[in-house]
Amino acid sequence: METYNFWITGSHILEIPDLKGNVEKECTSCLYSMVFLGILGVHQFYLRRNHHAFFLWATLGGIAGIGWLRDLFYIPTYVAAANESEEYMSELNELKSKKKVPDQGVCRWAASVALGYIFAILMYAVLWSDHLNERYVNTIIVLAHTFGALGVYIPNNEGHKAVSLGWCILGAYATLPLTIMYGEDYLFYGPLVSSSVASYKMYWKNEQSTQGFCIRALYVLAISIIYLGLLSTAIYYNATITTKGETVPLREAVQNFFNSKAWKETKETLSQLYNYYTHHGWRALWEEFLTAFDPQGEAHAYEVLGLNKSVTLKELKATYKSLALKYHPDKEKQEAKKKEMADKFMEIQKAYDILLKLKKERTQKQEL
């Protein structure tokens, strides 16, 4: 009988029979979601591992795809745990009786340190300002360590293992003096110590979460919105743009953009499009949109030949012949001007071909 290796802890391997029936279907569905949406953690959300799902998308697939690759080997384990299969639960209960404190595991430890550091840096970047006095700087450092502890808490509370948020915060606060004395470069030690403390204070959960899809989705959505809010704010206030050799803060560049002539013209255009839509509907707006962007090059072709849309086919041909004769490169003796006339001649030729083709197509449609 074929067997899968199921890793419950970093050092304990157990084998169970090949998955059949409903479990096999879940395993297949999980693999499909992992292949196509794995970087977003969809496969973990499917298996009711909400914190794991959040970690994957928040760190681009588990620290640039590393977590996603690891999941390839652990899908059968997660499926068995989600279904609480008889074999899995038997081995798990045996392990619980042998180890009162569950092993944290290297991967869970590394994930909690990484996410904790990201959270701490984001909070510090959002709140930091050169104009704050020392008292507020210390407050910011405390908040950064607290948020870092939350980042440690998330990966350590998944599956059948958990840890108290209080222990994570206590571990993070142990390194507060270092960061206060030596600056933000020492923020990393907060999540490092916090995760190490968590490894000694973990406990077995009696049962997994039985929350419904909507509750779980709202929970993951809520923490994701908070995370994205901090990330976007940190980028807005700390990122810079270099243009023409000068470095400009992103927030100033954004403000300058909204004060620019280009934005005012864009805003005016959007307003006109909205008004056009309210009076004429989506179909007319789409046609107007295509006309404005001129995907066929018709408007530009008329401009090159100096004509308008009411021109007849006979007038089009006559104008083309006149311009082609005028700008034919063979008429020019000087090499410098000859190239310029050749480019103009090619532009005229291209414009004529576009308009001729469009007029013939429209004539054929009218005849039908």
UniProtKB/TrEMBL annotation:
Sequence ranges assigned to domain J in this UniProt record: 300-368
Keyword Transmembrane: yes
Record keywords, A-Z: Membrane, Transmembrane, Transmembrane helix
Matching Pfam families: DnaJ, TM2
GO CC, one annotated term: membrane
Subcellular localization, as worded in the UniProt entry: Membrane
SMART domains assigned to the protein according to its UniProt record, in alphabetical order: DnaJ (SM00271)
Topology relative to the membrane: Multi-pass membrane protein
Residues spanning the membrane: 29-46, 52-69, 106-129, 135-155, 162-180, 216-237
PROSITE patterns: DNAJ_2
Cited function: May function as a co-chaperone.
The protein, known as: DnaJ homolog subfamily C member 22
